[in-house]
Amino acid sequence: MISSISSVVIIGAGAYGTALGIMLAKNGHKVFLWGHNPIRMRALKINRFHHHFVPDLKFPKLLFVEDSLQVALSVARDIIIAVPSNVFNSVLIKLKPHLRFDSRIILATKGLESKTGRFLQDVTREILGQEIPLAIISGPTFAKEIAMGLPTAIVVVSNNSLFIKDLENLLKCNNHFMVFIHSDFVGIQLTGVVKNIVAIASGISDGVGFGANARIALITCGFAEMLSLGLAMGGKLSLFTGMAGLGDLVLTCTDNQSRNRRFGILLGQGVGVSNAIKKVGQVVEGFNNTKEVRILSHQYNVVMPIVEQIYQILYHDKDVREAAFCLMKLSV
């Protein structure tokens, strides 16, 4: 079992990776945080806070900012990957030569492989090998609230019972961080992707001014689309109706901390796609993965009207108000 002085490496110094690092360090673990941008990492090391994330929250003493990937990977066996999905492959390739013989991977990235729609679990196995222990964490989690120590629930999936037990001990934090265990690799990866697309639709609806009734109708229909695709791909109903499924969907669609929802609101207000992404100022995973989810829906013969309308808006310049009215017709 992992002790209270265990070490963990976090790859990705964005909002989510930093938040997990702060939480784990507060919980008594040594955390080594690595990011790809040397200038930003130097600033984090000197200032001991994340200027773009929570500037008023100082890093705990046990959170170490490490600018050498080789050094970071040498000091801990457990590695949390928290990078955007569009750079996931390149990051794994970069870290592979420096892995320890006993390294274990925890995927915190939500997304699919660009252009193929493959699960990141499969990408990891292809690049790092079939034998490396692998777990996935997901759930209704906003980074800032994790960093602040507010009550949060997360779901852990792995087929390695010892790894799961270790992760429970690693993540549990004075009853503020609730850990739920599941076995559904398909569901935990798919829900973390589709919910972002539905959140864009929810934001568009609010940006256009349709109101709360329309928002809930879209969320309900979005859940049905997500569930239909998930079951067709072999996912388990209990995952979709739990924290990582319905819980994460509702959170992402209803709170403006969600960058995908904010992106949708801007689109609904008439801001163009490129400018809306710039205004959000963070990676909009729903934009990146709409194409891939559409590919999956066609592969599995699942009709997903919300995904289709968002795809037409993002990639074929469909009028946002026209698409919003189409969505509402499909939701009633």
Task: Name the CATH superfamily assignment of the largest domain.
Answer: NAD(P)-binding Rossmann-like Domain
SSE succession:
EHEHEHEHEHEHEHEHHHHHHHHH
Q: Count of DSSP helices?
A: 16
| CATH class categorisation of the largest domain | Alpha Beta
The strand line-up of the biggest sheet is 3-2-1-4-5-6-7-8
**How would a crystallographer describe the biggest sheet?**
8 strands, mixed
Structural class: alpha/beta
Shape: globular
- Helical content, roughly? 40-55%
- Proper CATH architecture of the largest domain: 3-Layer(aba) Sandwich
Low-confidence stretches: none
Total domain modules: 2
Terminal Cα span: 51 Å
What would you report as the Rg, rounded to the nearest angstrom? 19 Å
Within the CATH hierarchy, at the fold level, what is the topology of the largest domain?
Rossmann fold
Q: Tell me, rounded to a whole number, the average pLDDT.
A: 93
Give the percentage of residues in beta strands: 5-15%
- State the total count of DSSP E strands: 8
